[in-house]
């Protein structure tokens, strides 16, 4: 009888929108301990940008976009996990020894675990090593209060990595730690900047988990995406971001992507926003996948479907008859002036 192949350890990396999952992964993927890992990145938007932001390992990263793994993409998760096995078994891809699955920030890990455990073939070939959750020290308590999925991500984790400790006031950090200890009393709690690759993929002790899906779904949270050939000038980019932030900030949970800048068309600008905090814009050296289009994803509460497309077109000078142009958007007493990026 042919020998049954050893099950491949699978680490699920979760955490709410913008918590710092990709940042953690980027740092750890440089470690030789993860040289033999395949990485699967799921994101809620129809246009995938996360895998473009995972550095260094572009060839080993597979994107699963277009929905959330815990709901609409469960079938796709199964198909992708099976495809990876087939490609590995046929020698089409290197024989990865472990798999890291980064979930979308909205994912409830319960149904993902269920999918893996209940599938007869996948359960034989993959072994759930652990669930690692990233929690943002600056706003985890509010996020957990507002979003049941964020609560479940932490509650089910074997290890919780606290990110953004550099940004958090000591009392916020203490509050976040206390909350995690209460939600996940069996989990180890570490600083995300201190965790190493071996810790990320270590096998956690087996324990009972509640794998049923939370009844709430993702509530009023929606995702809107944009892909555009048009470029923004550097100045228009600042205005575009400022308007998004000032007019839609409270509803925006996450904004991210790559932007084509007219003055630098050969390299994209990385846009990263989590709630009201926006990272300093930075250029990558080149378009990671050769596709030199702006691609953006916004995730938030009750976002208008054309939010990104309408604003982007206006700032890129593509105003349509039924759409305001850039000057009209700012010729508005409510528009922000004299501060922030508007100078
Ligand atoms: N100052 C600081 N910024 C951080 C830290 N971790 C992440 N960030 C920033 O937070 C933003 C979001 O980080 P990501 O790693 O993309 O978060 P994510 O959880 O992968 O986001 P989604 O996949 O969109 O849910 C980026 O601008 C990061 O640079 C940290 O420890 N300190």
The SSE string, one letter per element, is EHEHEHEHHEHHEHEHEHEEEEEHH
The amount of helix comes to 25-40%
CATH class of the largest domain: Alpha Beta
Percent range for β-strand residues: 15-25%
SS-derived structural category = alpha/beta
Protein name: GTP-binding protein
Region (Disordered): 321-343
InterPro entries: CobW-likC_sf, CobW-like_C, CobW/HypB/UreG_nucleotide-bd, P-loop_NTPase, Zinc-reg_GTPase_activator
Keywords: Chaperone, Hydrolase, Nucleotide-binding
Task: Describe what you observe in this structure.
Residues 221-316 form the CobW C-terminal domain. Zinc chaperone that directly transfers zinc cofactor to target proteins, thereby activating them. Zinc is transferred from the CXCC motif in the GTPase domain to the zinc binding site in target proteins in a process requiring GTP hydrolysis. Residues 321-343 are annotated as: Disordered. Helix 6 (140-146) packs across helix 7. This protein has helices at 21-28, 50-53, 74-89, 109-118, 120-125, 140-146, 148-155, 170-183, 197-201, 234-248, 307-315, 326-330, and strands spanning 8-15, 37-42, 61-64, 98-102, 126-136, 159-163, 188-191, 221-228, 252-261, 264-274, 277-278, 282-283, 294-301. It is built from 12 helices and 13 strands. Strands 3-2-4-1-5-6-7 form a 7-stranded parallel sheet, with helices on both faces. It is an alpha/beta fold and 343 residues long. The N and C termini lie far apart (73 Å). The protein has 2 domains: 8-201, 3-Layer(aba) Sandwich (Rossmann fold); 221-342, CobW-like, C-terminal domain (Hypothetical Protein Yjia, Chain: A,domain 2, 2-Layer Sandwich). Bound molecules: guanosine-5'-triphosphate (GTP). The site of guanosine-5'-triphosphate has 20 residues, from helix 1, strand 9 and strand 10.
